[in-house]
Amino acid sequence: MIDTDGARLGVEAARRLAEADCCEMAPGLGEEEFARVEATYGFEFSPEHRAFLAAGLPVKSPPEDGATWEQPWPDWRHADPDELRDRLEWPVREVLHEVEGGRWHPALGERPATDEEAVDAARAVLARAPRLVPVYAHRFLPAGSGHRRHPVLSMWGTDIICYGRDLAHYIDHEFGGAEVSPPWPPQVSVPFWSDFLD
User: Fold this and answer.
1) Contacts of 60 (CB under 8 A, 6+ apart)
2) What residues have CB less than 8 Å from 13, skipping those under 6 apart?
3) pLDDT at 27
4) What CA–CA distance (Å, rounded) separates 96 from 112?
5) pTM here?
6) What is the DSSP annotation of 122-135?
7) Of 87, 71, 32, 27, nearest in space to 53 by CA
């Protein structure tokens, strides 16, 4: 069943990105390409993310200062598979890195007594967390058809904030200079990750 609301939102986000003229766009992904990506990496794009990438694949823009990746847009068509896996693992890896450094967030539950146990406990909690899919640099949407019109999350370890009410608003905010306007912050319903937000 096609999610027409999510599809409209994704197409609108792609239109706004094209109008911002901030990156190189390749032809959008086709159904065979979506199937290959989702089978290879074990997730399903959300309806709006799928429609966004079908309308046009952003592949190149100037790297950000201090960027983790040379190109902030994941190139689902041509990128090295290890690079895409690295991007998909970013949210979990960064939370674990903070736990290894001695930080603990209440979203992870009660902290075990030792550092080693804390890392093991965090790893177990994160293994059950919903999968997040990179949109641009360290901005993510939840995977799966059950998540639509979800705010785009900016992830930096346990410092997680909403960076747009939905994908179209995110494009305006990140690339069009749109101000954040009410209602803000938006309701974030994705299990686990929403517990990191104030």
Assistant:
1) 23, 24, 71, 73
2) 48, 52, 166, 167, 168, 170, 171
3) 96
4) 14
5) 0.90
6) HHHHHHTSPPEEEE
7) 27
Range picked from 70-79, 87-96, 146-155 for highest mean pLDDT: 87-96
Peptide bond into 183 cis (omega under 30): yes
Answer yes or no: are the C-beta atoms of 45 and 7 closer than 8 Å: no
- Distance, in Å, from the CA atom of 54 to the CA atom of 60, rounded to the nearest integer, reads 16
Reading the block at residue 191, the tokens are 């299990």
pLDDT in tens, 44-86: 999 999 999 999 999 887 656 655 667 899 999 999 999 999 9
For the cut 50, the answer to whether the pLDDT of residue 1 exceeds it is no
- More confident position, 184 or 152: 152
Q: Are 10 and 47 in contact (CB under 8 A)?
A: yes
CB 96 within 8 A of CB 84: no
The C-alpha atoms of residue 40 and residue 82 are separated, in whole angstroms, by: 11
Which two three-digit tokens encode residue 51? 């429609």
Q: What confidence score (pLDDT) does residue 182 get? A: 54
User: What is the number of H-type helices and E-type strands within the chain?
Assistant: 6, 6
**Measured at the alpha carbon of residue 169, what is the angle toward residues 38 and 179, in degrees to the nearest 5?**
145
- Residues whose CB falls within 8 Å of the CB of residue 92, separated by 6 or more in sequence, listed in order: 126, 129
Within a 10 A sphere around the Cβ of 40, how many other Cβ atoms? 12
